Amino acid sequence: MGLTKAEEFTKAQNELASIAKALGHPARIAILQFLIKTKACVCGDIVDQLPLSQSTVSQHLSELKKAGLIKGDIEGPSVCYCIDEKNWSKASKVLLELFQSYKGNSCC
Amino acid sequence: MGLTKAEEFTKAQNELASIAKALGHPARIAILQFLIKTKACVCGDIVDQLPLSQSTVSQHLSELKKAGLIKGDIEGPSVCYCIDEKNWSKASKVLLELFQSYKGNSCC
DNA sequence: ACCTTTAATCGTAATATTACGATAATGTGA
DNA sequence: TCACATTATCGTAATATTACGATTAAAGGT
Predict the structure, then answer these.
(1) Which among B4, B13, B32, B77 could bridge B9 via Cys, Cβ 3.0 to 4.6 Å?
(2) What's the Cα-to-Cα distance from A5 to each of A2, B28, B50, rounded to whole Å?
(3) Domain coordinates of chain A in residue numbers?
(4) Residue of B nearest to A86 (CA)
């Protein structure tokens, strides 16, 4: 059906999944890496860095924004995107918690 | 198009994205948490724990397996699933690297 | 006011995902 | 060998995602 039964899972599970989902595309990884690398929050040069059209990049940016990983400030005619510091560390925390909750005793 | 231009991105970016993609569904988060909690690698009781049909759970399991996060050993008529220890820590590492590469100086 | 630049949105097409029931495959025990 | 239990796979339908070009919207400069 393509329709996730989100209501059947906990809020924490849905939050974790939506963070991971936002990271689940190479273009969005590339965007994040570029935003991190160029410390100044560059705007639409992201488009120049990626092998994708302007509209596609804009869609990816809005998904990252929806997940809270980045934020965008209007700066004159262009928009300045950067990592959302607070949510970034929260995302890092919940992901790390999942990975660290496994203490390593697989039986197979 | 629904077709990701994977070849346009680096191997590392694609790997990171595919790990994140596998984590990008609440049912798969729930499965992993259940596998971690019940230290013995339970098999098909996963189906009983989730509000999804057997075939749907099987599909989620095979996606987690495809991403390398879990592995399954045939044990009699049933299959024993558990965290793939080696890949789990690798996944943890690459994700952590991404998050830690941001040192925190957002300008907006 | 007009044009240019920048970025979001709309319309669209192709493909992927999610989900289910039904069916097939595999292994155990009678 | 024959039923039974367990799990994977097939067929399917509905919805989501990815991507592009074209259009719109917003801000600045002339």
Answers:
(1) B13
(2) 10, 12, 11
(3) 17-95
(4) B104
CB proximity list for B97: less than 8 A, separation 6 or greater: none
Choose which CATH entry (1.10.10.10, 3.40.190.10, 3.40.50.920, 3.90.1150.10) describes domain B9-92. 1.10.10.10
- Pick the residue of A29, A55, A88 with the most B CBs within 10 A to test the interface with B by mutation: A29
As assigned by CATH, the class of the A17-95 domain is: mainly alpha
User: Residue A1 CA to nucleotide D15 C1', Å?
Assistant: 6
